[in-house]
Design a protein that fits this description.
Layout lengths: L1 E6 L8 E7 L2 E6 L4 H10 L1 E4 L2 E3 L2 H8 L2 E2 L4 H17 L1 H8 L8 H22 L1
Antiparallel strand pairs: 1-3, 1-6, 2-3, 4-5
Helix pairs in contact: 3-5
Length: about 130
């Protein structure tokens, strides 16, 4: 998992590594399988909306002393497309499908939604040029 930050503390946990640093953007890679990171996630997990539990990025970054970068939507869409592709190719996801997992919406639906969003962003950018 990657985070993009404007600022970070002088020391990061052993499960976080700075990949790149250019200008005011710092790319941090998180080893999300590290036991200490998993413990932190469990500690920060809350009900995000009724029936949905997870960890808010702002809570995680606050705990780490990281100031999140407000990335452009284009960049966020690209990251989401990469993550969804990684999920689709992940052996655990494939195993769930083999065991009969059949959600109402699937990975292809999410990919399609992001493609439509990318098209709309591109269309609006072309109009503004």
């Amino acid at each position: 998992m990657k985070l993009y930050a404007k600022s970070i503390p002088h020391t990061l946990p052993d499960w976080a590594t700075i990949l790149t640093q250019s200008g005011d953007l710092i790319e941090i890679e998180i080893n999300d399988e590290h036991p200490n990171f998993q413990s932190l996630l469990e500690e920060l997990e809350t009900e995000i909306e009724p029936g949905t539990f997870g960890v808010k990025a702002e809570d995680l970054c606050s705990r780490l002393g990281i100031e999140m970068s407000n990335l452009h939507l284009h960049h966020l869409v690209e990251q989401a497309q990469i993550l969804i592709s990684l999920i689709a190719a992940h052996s655990d996801y494939k195993q769930l499908l083999d065991l009969g997992y059949q959600p109402d919406l699937n990975i292809a639906d999410a990919q399609t939604a992001l493609i439509y969003l990318q098209w709309e962003l591109d269309r609006r950018q072309q109009r503004s040029v």
